[in-house]
Write a structure and sequence with these properties.
Blueprint lengths: L2 H45 L3 H31 L4 H34 L10 H24 L2 H26 L6 H34 L19
Helix pairs in contact: 1-2, 1-3, 1-4, 2-3, 3-6, 4-5, 4-6, 5-6
């Protein structure tokens, strides 16, 4: 093959690679938007005793598991297409981890919906606890919506700011756990167990957004955030 043909072939393959890389990035954006929608509908199912919404979330989470397999295969195909430069390699490898986080976020929304459906038509959340659950859901949703913007803008400074927002969710989680473990808790042990699980699901949802934000920082800078971690996937818990 002549030098000119080799250059032409290399340029063509590079264009194909960039096109597929852009497509992979679009898949991540759609994944994020789907998780926002699933969390919103799971909270509707929980607080409004909406069995239809619960079923939609459970089915939707299962569909995202299929999308995960497609996205991961897309990433592996990118790695096989050509030897990517450092920045491209970070993007592909970070994308693989981000897909895993998104899948677990969808599973968490599914867990919330299952609690709602299991207790239907009874209320899961006592009226005096509704405000704290609603705030957890709203803060989680806000974090996930910011992720959608960060995946497109790749702003490392804004990505780092998500960690501070997660602190507020951790505080809400701790406050609820203290409330349901108090001897004066008036709603019984079954309610306490349900709420402990729900609080954990919402808290873990936020943890995954922070892990994705850290991946975005790494993608942009090539370095770990100061004192940060790249993953919350370390304990293998079913609650993840």
């Amino acid at each position: 093959m002549s030098r000119r043909l080799r250059i032409h072939y290399s340029c063509r393959m590079r264009n194909v690679f960039r096109s597929k890389l852009d497509e992979f990035a679009d898949q991540l954006g759609r994944f994020c938007e789907s998780n926002v929608r699933l969390l919103d509908r799971a909270t509707v199912a929980l607080l409004e005793r909406d069995e239809t919404a619960a079923t939609e979330v459970i089915d939707g989470a299962a569909e995202l598991e299929e999308l995960r397999e497609v996205s991961e295969q897309h990433a592996f195909d990118l790695l096989l297409l050509e030897a990517p430069v450092a920045g491209d390699l970070r993007q592909v490898m970070s994308g693989i981890y981000i897909v895993e986080h998104f899948t677990r976020m969808a599973a968490l929304a599914g867990h919330i919906a299952r609690v709602a459906r299991r207790r239907y038509p009874n209320a899961v959340v006592p009226e005096d606890v509704v405000p704290i659950i609603r705030e957890l859901a709203e803060r989680d949703g806000a974090l996930a919506r910011q992720l959608a913007e960060l995946l497109e803008a790749r702003d490392a400074e804004k990505a780092l700011a998500l960690d501070a927002q997660d602190d507020a969710i951790d505080a809400l989680h701790a406050s609820l756990m203290k409330q349901i473990s108090d001897e004066s808790w008036p709603h019984g042990s079954v309610s306490a167990v349900d709420l402990a699980l729900l609080a954990r699901y919402y808290e873990r949802f936020a943890d995954h957004t922070v892990s994705i934000a850290n991946r975005i920082v790494y993608l942009v800078t090539g370095e770990l955030p100061d004192g940060g971690m790249l993953s919350h996937l370390d304990d293998g818990s079913v609650l993840d």
